[in-house]
Amino acid sequence: MSPRERVQELQLRYAHAIDDDALEQWPGFFTAEGRYRVIPRENHARGLPACLIDCRGVAMMQDRVASLRTANIYNIHFDRHLLSPPLVEAPEADGTVRARTQFLVMQSDQSGVSKPFATGVYLDVVELGGDTARFRERTVVLDSYGVLELLATPI
Prior knowledge:
Layout: H1 3-19, E1 30-40, H2 41-46, E2 53-56, H3 58-70, E3 77-83, E4 87-88, E5 96-109, E6 114-129, E7 132-142
Parallel strand pairs: 1-7
Antiparallel strand pairs: 1-2, 3-5, 4-5, 5-6, 6-7
């Protein structure tokens, strides 16, 4: 597979895992020291560090999933990711590639109401090693600072 195909495969598996409520798989899409953060467009554009979520390392992500399953109270919902094809740059010397992918996440609640939850762009740094591809960094840049519902599950 080409780097672009490998990145797209990783992104699709990531989205399907979240949409299928297989959140325990989520940390496995990252390298051990991988970073996942969600930041509003305004902060990202100004270089401001404040994020809505900033997980550094798989252990922090595993803890977040355990918390979602056992401690947190949030609206029960179902996500559906819609992704654009990724724009993938040429591989760098360290075996990573950078990718940019637009997304829309729809949420459906238990009463059957579906509505747009979040739109934005994924800015990814993906490690391509052997047959695996994993996120070294996934920055979720939200188009809006306001999130209508609680931002509980990964985007």
